[in-house]
């Protein structure tokens, strides 16, 4: 036999085999194995020894401090989170980096083209990459498992809960790795793919879950934290300690129940739901890109489906907050302090309620701003993927002409994205109207009916933004498109910050008008219009800002769309001329 | 076996390939020639289903590469213009990876690997890590990988670009051997001489367009109607110069070598007219020792096309 290393695992997926051969030769096994054992044993044993040492207890009788009995159980329980941290570092940090870097590198060098040309099925290729590229990281993780067994046995932890936790842990790992792989496949410039992958992983799973603390609970479940705190907080109470310490107690109550529509869901279920949905979406995208690199990351109907799903999760997460003030995370904790009992709401004459309504009014202002910003962010991504560039549009036109069709089919990737804009612009008001009506009906956030402007204005701004995003995407290539959005959305905010820091209140009027160019700020101004924002003489400028922002967005949308319409007419004319010149 | 019809590939506003059409018959070796940026690599990538054309049709054995890329890929062996390999795999592991990816059974895989390593003279390097190979060796490893699933169609983009002269000869022999076995080979190069003995047909590309396309000999003859004639005299014979300068179909600058016996001139006319010219020279008394047409090669053809385009 000539290929010795294939003898042990000849039937394994070729790409997994490749990963093992590339990254787990004997020298590497020894070097990385030693490193892992040293790192894990240092971390685990330090925590274990420190935790198992007897605790100092104040004895009131003798009025002196006495050291308690040593407790291996406490040691193991103390060491458990540290072990999880090391494992997370290995699989989530090193592994995701390897996935992103490996995919991008293979794409850049052309190795991915070889794989693309093999007759292996796309799902086999995805699985091969998912487990093959980070083969070394899985090996390192395996070396930490004896420490885990020690922690379970000595720490008397519920093995069921630990298995449950590790199930979610591995699902998170897959999610991060698949995200990195998909980004590596999508980003058009392979050199940038590695960095973009890391940024996407950080954004999706580190920064975005932060919004879970502001009522958008579903975002928190993209990470392991809810399951960890939900399942393990009580398991890790030290022997001799009556209850969780305050921090753990708070964390545990944050995550035990997730308000979703009229019910509450367990964090474990919600995690499986969220991660399952995301994994399915990413897998479908990777499958599509492996099948044909020229295809967009997802089709137009899939884009609308994604947006609908996002809106469903948004409404579900915010339903109780808008209806009765229930929220998870820090926001829930903050507002639970002055939760409005029904008696208080009835005492509208008392003056106390006014203060409460103002405070909670700010809650809905912030949440509504985030809601629209988040939806707009998702729309940018969806439109960026589904709206064709000039190149794609002309390709579609030529293909349609070849097939004898009058025009590009409505849902084809090459079809201009106006239908997408229409669909997204229709879906969003449903979410907004449903939530706002509920907030008004609850009587918690508004002293009186906020007016139709509160309903219509943000939806108009949202639709205008979608319209100009689409026109810009179809008009310019990537650099022009992102440059345009960056200039329009970020520059005004930066200028406002400079003005506000330099001149403070003197220039607030300018700030409110200039800032409204940026949609997140304009959404904030629109959401704040029905409320007393305590801005004294600047209150009017604040309210005008919302109108200015909406008007400018509409003007840009009209200008760009008209320009794009005329350009496309010229392209079509050019195509007709080419077709005529081709005729014999 | 390969049919390309009105192929267009746009990169943004740039046209990489513009209305390219050609056919490669089964068992034929077709050379795609052109300067850098002519669109050779783009064309080969489009045939290899790695790049979706903006317009046009590509058929491989009658199957559309555009609509059924999965069915076409199994028939293709593609080798890009520079050799990316998995640096941390050994040569045999690299080839074996693709043998298994193309569905070879574990028993057959080793035989296939042996066959391909032998064909590319890499047997003594089989246990060496790919990263330690020279560029030429990597190119060979890549060729071994390309052959491992025994594809009926080979797409080779600048296959000899990094090879030493010996390896080039080996590659040429290997490709000839593969062509004899009935493989259809599309090979691109800008090292023109290496295609001369190899190709049955050629296509010369320039700025994304096909300038000349067809059977090698026919193309060469068609494109080089002006013959270059080399004449050697036994001893200097000055009347020859005046005769050639005065002849309406001959173009002679009057420059000769030091011994004044070697004369090179161009001649517009067919073979019969050439024979008449020679007869006239002999009748004039010129001591003609040898008189022959310098064989036009691909390089001169390419230069002729280039200068023709420029003029």
Explain this structure to me?
The complex is a heterodimer of chains A (584) and B (311). With 584 residues, chain A is mainly alpha-helical. Chain A has 2 domains: 11-52 and 71-295, no CATH class; 304-584, no CATH class. In chain A, 73% of the residues lie in helices and 2% in strands. Chain A is built from 22 helices and 4 strands. Chain A has helices at residues 14-23, 26-52, 72-109, 111-117, 122-132, 135-154, 159-186, 190-207, 225-232, 246-256, 267-291, 300-324, 329-336, 342-346, 352-386, 390-402, 418-442, 452-475, 478-503, 508-515, 519-528, 539-582; strands at residues 56-59, 64-67, 258-260, 263-265. In chain A, the strands form 2 sheets. Chain A has a two-stranded antiparallel sheet. A two-stranded antiparallel sheet of chain A has the order 3-4. In chain A, helix 3 runs antiparallel to helix 8 (190-207). The model of chain A is unreliable at 1-7 and 339-355 (pLDDT under 50). Chain B is α/β, with parallel strands linked by helices and 311 residues long. Chain B folds into 2 domains: 2-221, 3-Layer(aba) Sandwich (Rossmann fold); 225-295, Alpha-Beta Plaits (2-Layer Sandwich). Chain B has 11 helices and 14 strands. Chain B has helices at 40-47, 69-73, 91-101, 106-119, 135-147, 165-180, 193-196, 216-223, 239-246, 271-284, 298-310; strands at 2-11, 14-24, 29-33, 55-60, 63-64, 76-79, 153-157, 184-189, 201-206, 209-215, 226-233, 250-251, 262-268, 288-293. In chain B, strand 7, helix 6 (165-180) and strand 8 (184-189) form a beta-alpha-beta unit. In chain B, helix 3 packs across helix 4, helix 3 (91-101) packs parallel to helix 5 (135-147) and helix 8 (216-223) packs across helix 11. The radius of gyration of chain B is 24 Å and the shape is elongated. The model of chain B has no long low-confidence stretch (mean pLDDT 83). At the A-B interface, helix 1, helix 4 and helix 16 of A face helix 2, helix 3 and helix 4 of B.
């Amino acid at each position: 036999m000539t290929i010795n290393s294939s003898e042990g695992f000849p039937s394994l997926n070729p790409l997994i085999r490749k990963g093992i051969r590339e990254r787990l030769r004997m020298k590497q096994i020894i070097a990385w194995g030693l490193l892992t054992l040293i790192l894990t044993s240092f971390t685990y044993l330090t925590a274990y020894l420190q935790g198992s040492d007897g605790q100092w207890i104040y004895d009131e009788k003798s009025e002196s401090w006495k050291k308690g009995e040593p407790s291996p159980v406490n040691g193991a329980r103390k060491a458990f989170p540290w072990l999880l941290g090391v494992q997370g570092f290995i699989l989530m940090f090193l592994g995701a980096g390897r996935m992103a870097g490996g995919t991008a590198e293979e794409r850049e060098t052309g190795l991915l083209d070889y794989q693309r040309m093999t007759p292996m099925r796309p799902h086999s290729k995805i699985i091969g990459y998912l487990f093959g590229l980070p083969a070394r990281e899985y090996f390192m993780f395996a070396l930490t498992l004896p420490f885990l067994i020690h922690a379970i046995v000595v720490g008397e932890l519920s093995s069921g809960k630990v298995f449950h936790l590790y199930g979610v842990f591995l699902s998170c790992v897959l999610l991060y790795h698949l995200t990195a792989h998909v980004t590596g496949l999508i980003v058009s410039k392979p050199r940038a793919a590695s960095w973009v992958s890391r940024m996407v992983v950080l954004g999706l799973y580190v920064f975005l879950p932060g919004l879970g603390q502001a009522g958008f609970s579903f975002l928190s479940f993209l990470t392991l934290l809810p399951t960890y705190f939900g399942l393990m907080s009580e398991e890790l109470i030290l022997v001799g300690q009556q209850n969780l310490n305050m921090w753990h107690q708070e964390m545990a109550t944050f995550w035990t129940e997730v308000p979703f529509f009229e019910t509450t869901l367990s964090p474990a279920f919600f995690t499986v739901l969220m991660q399952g949905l995301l994994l399915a979406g990413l897998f479908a995208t990777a499958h599509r890109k492996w099948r044909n690199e020229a295809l967009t990351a997802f089709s137009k109907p899939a884009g609308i489906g994604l947006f609908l799903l996002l809106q469903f999760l948004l409404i579900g997460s915010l339903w109780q907050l808008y209806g009765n003030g229930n929220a998870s995370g820090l926001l829930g904790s903050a507002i639970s302090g002055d939760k409005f009992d029904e008696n208080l709401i009835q005492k509208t004459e008392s003056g106390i309620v006014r203060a409460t309504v103002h405070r909670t009014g700010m809650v809905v202002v912030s949440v509504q701003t985030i809601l629209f910003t988040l939806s707009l962010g998702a729309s940018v991504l969806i439109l960026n993927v589904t709206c064709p560039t000039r190149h794609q549009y002309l390709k579609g036109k030529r293909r349609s002409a070849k097939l004898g069709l009058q025009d590009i089919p409505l849902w084809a990737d090459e079809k201009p994205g106006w239908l997408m804009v229409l669909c997204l612009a229709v879906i969003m008001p449903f979410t907004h109207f449903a939530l706002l009506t509920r907030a008004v009906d609850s009587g918690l956030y508004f002293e009186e009916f906020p007016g139709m402007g509160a309903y219509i204005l943000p939806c108009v701004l949202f639709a205008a933004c979608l319209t100009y995003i689409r026109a810009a995407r179809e008009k310019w290539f990537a650099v022009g498109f992102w440059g345009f959005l960056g200039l329009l959305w970020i520059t005004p905010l930066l200028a406002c910050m400079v003005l506000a820091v330099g001149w403070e209140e003197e220039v607030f009027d300018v700030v409110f008008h200039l800032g409204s160019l940026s949609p997140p700020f304009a959404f904030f101004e629109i959401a704040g219009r029905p409320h007393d924002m305590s801005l004294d003489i600047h209150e009017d400028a604040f309210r005008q800002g919302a109108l200015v922002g909406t008007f400018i967005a509409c003007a840009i949308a009209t200008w760009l769309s008209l320009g794009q319409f005329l350009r496309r007419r010229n392209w079509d004319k050019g195509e007709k001329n080419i077709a005529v010149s081709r005729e014999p | 076996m390969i049919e390309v019809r009105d192929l267009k590939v746009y990169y943004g506003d740039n046209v990489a390939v513009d209305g390219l059409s050609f056919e490669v018959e089964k068992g034929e070796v077709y050379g795609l020639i052109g300067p850098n940026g002519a669109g050779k690599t783009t064309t080969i990538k489009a045939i290899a289903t790695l790049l979706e054309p903006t317009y046009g049709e590509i058929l491989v054995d009658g199957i559309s590469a555009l609509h059924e890329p999965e069915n076409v890929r199994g028939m293709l062996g593609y080798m890009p213009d520079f050799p990316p390999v998995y640096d941390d795999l050994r040569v045999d592991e690299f080839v074996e990876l693709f043998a298994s990816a193309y569905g070879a059974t574990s028993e057959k895989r080793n035989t296939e690997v042996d066959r391909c390593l032998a064909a590319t003279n890499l047997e003594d390097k089989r246990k060496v890590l790919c990263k330690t190979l020279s560029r030429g060796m990597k190119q060979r490893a890549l060729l071994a990988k390309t052959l491992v699933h025994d594809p009926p169609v080979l797409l080779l983009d600048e296959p000899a670009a990094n090879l030493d002269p010996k390896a080039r000869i080996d590659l040429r022999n290997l490709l000839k051997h593969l062509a004899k076995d009935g493989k259809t080979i599309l090979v691109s190069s800008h090292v023109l001489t290496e295609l001369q003995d190899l190709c049955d047909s050629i296509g010369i590309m320039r700025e994304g367009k096909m300038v000349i396309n067809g059977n090698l000999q026919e193309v060469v003859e068609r494109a080089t109607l002006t013959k270059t004639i080399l004449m050697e005299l036994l001893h200097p014979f000055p009347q020859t110069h005046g005769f050639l300068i005065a002849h309406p179909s001959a173009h002679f600058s009057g420059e000769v070598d030091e011994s004044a016996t070697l004369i090179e001139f161009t001649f517009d006319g067919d073979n019969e007219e050439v024979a008449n010219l020679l007869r006239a020279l002999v009748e004039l008394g010129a001591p003609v020792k040898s008189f022959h047409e310098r064989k036009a090669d691909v390089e001169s053809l390419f230069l002729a096309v280039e200068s023709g385009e420029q003029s």
